[in-house]
Amino acid sequence: MIDHEWRVLTGAGLSEVAALAARCLAVHGGLPLAAEPSFLQRRFAARAVTARDPAGRLIAAAGLRDDDGGGGPVAAWLALPEAVDHAGAAVLDAALAAGAVRVETEFLTVAAERLFARRALVPDRAEDVLRFDRRHGISAAALPAGITLREWSTGLAPRFHAVYAAAFRDRPGFPGWDVTQWTRWLVDDDFRPQASLLATGADGTDAGFVTSAAGWIVQVGVRPGWRGRGLGAALVCAALRRHDADAVLLDVAVGNPAVRLYRRLGFDPLGRRGTYRVA
Predict the structure, then answer these.
(1) Name one GO molecular function term (predicted).
(2) Are residues 109 and 144 in the same domain?
């Protein structure tokens, strides 16, 4: 049974969505944060449509919000495994009818992929969520000879950004942000400057970087000319030593060969998340 009326979710409504996300998380795995009300607030509170089973239990939901970048409405979607093809499809259809141009899910399963394909949605991004348990010890990956590390500061932001641009500009979906846009996206209350590091070679060339938030490795990048020397592994390990959380997460694009590095360093897969767009 779908509630076709879009509505603002109250605290109780958000708690129901959080409980639904927790059930999805228990089955599919994925980002633990995805079941927390603080995470779901922005995605579902403004406008949401829900579906229930005959007993009244919430089994699927879609939230609709405006894209910060002005790209059109974005839908957040989730459904229990057994509800994907009926209730999940119904709330997805409601989101598309309301004008959603992108659909994101924290639980990208084979069934969800098939549903999105039937709705002619095009994959935009798919990421595996990986987890590192610091209690198991951190690899002693050494920095390449001559490399020094500096922690994030406002004054160093342009140099971090220059390495970020050099490392990522050829990747699909690179947003092309300038230093102000990138810094605004990166630095928030959870940002960890002490675990965000710039790697500089003996000749003064900035070779790589890593940025961190609370319990997260946010980005790792190495200039093309410095790849293959172990710098990425050394940066990740250096950042892990500066984190204070027992568990540290990161996202890696599906198909990115860097996943082999992260697995070698001790990261374990938790689940998959993704974004699709209207063709």
Answers:
(1) acyltransferase activity, transferring groups other than amino-acyl groups
(2) no
pTM of the model: 0.82
| 171 against 103, higher pLDDT | 103
Distance of CA 53 to the CA centre of its chain: 30
Does some domain include residue 278? no
Report whether pLDDT(132) > 80. Answer: yes
CATH number of the domain encompassing residue 245: 3.40.630.30
Strands ordered across the beta sheet of 2-7: 2-7, 48-52, 58-66, 73-79, 102-105, 268-278, 121-133, 247-253, 216-222, 206-213, 197-200, 148-151
State the residue range of the domain holding 215. 133-272
- The residues with which 150 forms a beta bridge, in sequence order, are 198
**Residue 141 domain flag:** yes
Secondary structure of residue 114 in the 3-state scheme: helix
Closest among 71, 74, 84, 94 to 116, alpha carbons compared:
84
Do 53 and 80 touch, CB atoms closer than 8 A? no
pLDDT in tens, 147-199: 999 999 999 999 999 999 999 998 877 889 999 999 999 999 999 999 999 99
- DSSP conformation class of 67: -
